[in-house]
Design a protein that fits this description.
The protein is mainly alpha-helical. Helix 1 packs across helix 2. The protein contains six helices and three strands; from the N terminus they run αβααββααα.
């Protein structure tokens, strides 16, 4: 699962790909030059490393993801709960709500989600 961990700059780079995919490697170089102030070599180095970790692919000069943004962040959330709360979602929610009150809308959404999962459906 360590291959799913990204640093701050790698996350910014990944967001660029997810928000623009599929895109040519040339387009990626230009976006990274503009948004991250990177040289072409830096873009290709980071892209190569993330492709080696099977997060993205660069086939015939076209860059796209191997894992969706949503799935990536789902893995990140799951890892956080596992590492910080021994995998206990109730312990995470208890800690989260200790300092932040949930709105009635949020409470309803959570209840609906639990009921949906209880019936074997994913939202």
């Amino acid at each position: 699962m360590n291959q799913m961990k990204l640093g701050v700059v790698e996350t910014q780079f990944a967001e660029i790909i997810w928000n623009n995919e599929p895109l040519s490697s040339g387009e990626l170089v230009e976006i990274c030059k503009k948004n991250l102030n990177w040289k072409k070599s830096t873009t290709y180095t980071v892209l190569r490393k993330l492709c080696e970790r099977s997060l993205f692919k660069n086939e015939n000069g076209m860059v796209s993801s191997c894992i969706s943004k949503e799935d990536f962040y789902a893995y990140q959330s799951e890892d956080f709960v596992n590492e910080t709360f021994n995998g206990s979602l109730p312990a995470f929610i208890a800690a989260f709500t200790r300092r932040k009150n949930l709105s009635q809308k949020e409470i309803k959404e959570i209840k609906d989600m639990i009921e949906s999962y209880g019936k074997g459906k994913k939202k």
